[in-house]
Amino acid sequence: MALFDRLKDQARTLQQSQGGHGATGGRSRGTGSGGGSRAQLVSVLKTQLGSLKTELKSGAYRDASMAMCALVAAADGHVDPAERQHVESMILSNDVLQNFPPEQLRQRFNKHVDQLTHNFPHGKAEAMQDIAKAAKKPTEARAVIQTGMVIAGADGDFSQAEQMIIREACAALGVNPAEFQL
């Protein structure tokens, strides 16, 4: 729970520094089981990404985001069909990713998932290469990390494996994981 609270606070700070409008306003930490905090974090990250929609139209961002989504889905070493379908539906309904044709997104996501499920180390190396292509533009690099965090947090459980994958993506992108409290 504490990690999600820190991420939520960090996301709010990042959004304010980018001139965005906060989805959580002046509220701070959620109460109860922490599910509210996780939902708020995902909402804040989605809002941040939405505010950058016009800047996130490159093929590098598209490819890196699909690789990131696949890595997050496969972080625990496998992707069952229901999880694959769920992540694909989140991708296709994401406001920023609607900048791209759905079939391009599906094809790239499924390519990476197939590689990761067939041979995880090789698939991970391929995905990290695609992720690294977004490193040239800091806004895109951070957006790829945010996209991964939205996908990771959508089920209410930001696992250690997902955190590790996102930290590795930060390294590939030259982004300090501390910016995201990782």
Describe this structure in words.
By secondary structure, this protein is mainly α. The two termini are about 15 Å apart. The protein is globular and about 35 Å long. Helices cover about 65% and strands about 0% of the residues. The chain has one domain. The relative contact order is 0.16. This is TerB family tellurite resistance protein. InterPro entries: DjlA_N (IPR007791), TerB-like (IPR029024). It holds the Pfam family TerB.
Question: Layout of helices and strands, plus pairs?
Answer:
Layout: H1 2-17, H2 35-51, H3 59-73, H4 81-93, H5 102-118, H6 120-132, H7 138-153, H8 160-173
Q: What is the averaged pLDDT score?
A: 80
What is the H-and-E element order? Answer: HHHHHHHH
The CA-CA distance between the termini, in Å, is 14 Å
Shape descriptor reads globular
Question: What share of residues are in beta strands?
Answer: under 5%
Q: Low-confidence segments, ≥5 residues, pLDDT <50? A: 17-35
Compute the CA-based radius of gyration. 15 Å
Beta strands, count: 0
Pairing-aware structural class of the strands and helices?
mainly alpha
Helical content (DSSP H or I, runs of 4+): 55-70%
Number of helices: 8
Question: How many domain modules?
Answer: 1
Largest sheet features? none
InterPro entries: DjlA_N, TerB-like
Organism: Streptomyces sporangiiformans
Biased composition (Gly residues): 19-37
Protein name: TerB family tellurite resistance protein
